[in-house]
Amino acid sequence: MCLSIPSQVVAVDIERQSVTVDTLGVRRDVSSHLMNEPLEIGDYVLIHIGFVMNKIDKEDAQQSIDIYQEIVTKLENEAIH
């Protein structure tokens, strides 16, 4: 099973068919070759092995990001104690 953290598109390179995404503060370039619809800066996407698989709703993305942040905070607190 693979979990994908929603990533926000921060740059689009139409010529290379790629986008730069921000995933919880980490930026990386990923391929948009598999997308049938155009991507724009600000869109939220799910990525699998370096490819954008689909675009997701901003509210759904934010809910997922909030849950991941909550998990990270709990794990960090457990590591301290």
UniProtKB/TrEMBL annotation:
Alphabetized GO MF terms: carbon dioxide binding; iron ion binding
SUPFAM superfamilies: HupF/HypC-like
A GO BP annotation: protein maturation
Pfam entry (one): HupF_HypC
Signal peptide: none
InterPro entries: Hydrogenase_HupF/HypC
Family per similarity comment: Belongs to the HupF/HypC family.
Name by which UniProt lists this protein: Hydrogenase assembly chaperone hypC/hupF
